[in-house]
Amino acid sequence: MNSFKKIALAMVAAMTLGTMVATPASANTMSVVASTWNAAKTGGAGYDTPATAGTALTTAIVRPVPADNTVDNTDVVQIVATVAAGTSVTATSTNATIVSALHTTAAPVGATSGSSSLTVATGTGTTATFFVYTKTTAIGTVVITNGPVTLTYYVQGTAGLINNLTVSAPTTGAAGTKQDITVTATDTFGNKVSGKSITATIFAASATLDTATATTGATLSDFGVATFKATLPATGTRSLITFAPTTAGDAVAGAVVGLTAPTLAPFAEIAVRDLVSELAAEKAAKDAALAAKAVADAAVLKAAADAVAAKAAADKALADAKTASDAALAAEKTASAKALADAKVAADAALAAAVKVETDKAAAAKVASDAALLAKDAQIAKLTADNAAALASLKKAFNTLANRWNKKNPKAKVALVK
Fold first, then answer.
1. How far apart are CA 196 and CA 402, in angstroms?
2. Do 231 and 100 sit in the same domain of this protein?
3. Are 187 and 65 in contact (CB under 8 A)?
């Protein structure tokens, strides 16, 4: 990702420098001087003029970030553009900020002052002055424009003292294992700080370290990051390790008004896992689950056996009901036949006296007999339907239990009842 950023910045630089074309005779002319403060300058402190610094991506002018929240002469690049009188000069920045004046007690200029663009009208004069500061270590640009003429300078910040330490550590680890803990050092603006020693302190002998100090890296893979290796104890519930800058002078002395408060003593807390005990607990839970399964399997077997017994009882009840129904039908038929015979004898006996009367009586007796037969047939049909419904219910109950059994015991399936 950083390589792509560098390529992109190089492309931007090439495109920007490509705009620095020869100026037509009728256009504005502009000369620009970018310089930095030099307290040891011969003749007294002041701004020096770098020969070619800042005109290319690889020669960015380097300035410290304003970690004290005051933008003064040591933090800025002074850019002075000399132009034709009465014209305006515009400065536009990326990854940098432009101010028109430096900090004073009467007129404070801090890390939130300024903007990314500033235009100065020269009026009757011929110069425009800009001060540029940056809060990031990423390379920034400042484009100075006067009419059709543009010039680009590159600036870059250097990280301040350590203002924040952040810790990344696993939340848990097996007893006796080695764990990586990383500590990232940043300044008050979030820039990573490299080459600084960090000291780790173990609380209550809850772990051991390969080394008590580590230095924040300076490569792309570990810039500003120090790595510690901690071996967790064989017994105990947690490991607690605190971190702090080894050298007090590498960190801020205290909070700066208006900037992020320092956090210089973070800690890592790692819960120690007893894998032997966890394994025993898991085994006990598994054994309990197997015991519960055995109980459930026994219940299924009993339910299946009960269903078989219920079916046998239902089959017997059906057979008994059919036998009783057949016996009742035979008795009814016998009684009906006897009644008919008795009626016929009575009719024959009375036939001589009153044929018509006896004929009517015979007809009435037949009607009564037919009604009784129909009633018995209806009773038999109801008994047959009730028996069939009871059998169907028993079959359904059995098949439901059998399906449950078969799902849990695919190798010992029970045949369904049709």
1. 74
2. no
3. yes
Residues 6+ apart with CB under 8 A from 409: 297, 300
* 276 Cβ neighbours under 8 A, 6+ residues apart: none
Going from the C-alpha of 213 to that of each of 116, 196, 226, 228, 270, the distances in angstroms are: 41, 10, 9, 8, 19
Task: Please report, for residues 316, 323, 374, 384, the alpha-carbon distance to residue 328 in angstroms, rounded to integers and kept in the order given.
Answer: 18, 9, 13, 13
Provide the residue range defining the domain that includes 288.
278-408
The reply to whether 416 falls in a domain is: no
Residue 415 falls within a domain, yes or no?
no
* Shared-domain flag, residues 311 and 268: no
Residue 18 CA, chain-centre distance (Å), reads 47
Res 276 pLDDT > 80: no
The 10s digit of each residue's pLDDT in 121-173 is 999 999 999 999 999 999 999 999 999 999 999 999 999 999 999 999 999 99
Tokens, residue 274: 């007893």
Q: How far apart are the first and last CA of the chain?
A: 71
**What is the CB neighbour count within 10 angstroms for residue 394?**
20
Instruction: Determine the 3-state secondary structure of 231 from DSSP.
Output: strand
* 357 Cβ neighbours under 8 A, 6+ residues apart: 350
- Encode pLDDT of 328-363 as tens digits: 888 888 888 888 888 888 878 767 776 677 777 878
Q: Mark whether 335 and 393 lie in a shared domain.
A: yes
Last residue of a domain, one of 143, 158, 173: 158
Domain count within the chain: 3
